[in-house]
Amino acid sequence: MEGEVLGENYKGYVFKLSGGNDKDGFPMKQGVMINGRTRMMFKTGRATTYIPRRTGERKRRSVRGCIYGSDLAVIFLTIVQKGEKEIEGCTNSEHPNRLAPKRASKIAKMYALVKGKDDVRKYVNRRTIKRKDKTFWKAPKIQRLVTEKRLRRKLVIKRDK
Prior knowledge:
Layout: E1 14-22, E2 37-42, E3 59-64, E4 72-81, H1 104-110, E5 127-130, E6 135-138, H2 148-160
Antiparallel strand pairs: 1-4, 2-3, 5-6
């Protein structure tokens, strides 16, 4: 969607429509070809609009169709292409990447690391914590990290077998 439709401030921007809510707060559901609301049966893993409390539980919930209309109160947009002017509070400020992958193979894929040469531990997303007297960093535990200790342990287990 072209940004000029929203106003002169968004000239040159290109947005991707990614959902929305109607005036009563009912979310849009992808694949439901209706302009209004409908009631759908949900179960585990089907939608973010329903979280089952027990195993095998199903529930009928009201959702909006995926067709955009004038009765929508909120429309979710994603910026695909940046325009001429900055959008206040959105494109004019930099936010550090707070979350990053934890699994060793996914960290290596993200930074295009070479297996055996590059150390994955150097590329973990760290948080800086500042206290009164000192500054320190916190990093998540890397999952599926193959270290020297792990290789030795594997060798001992193999030898014992």
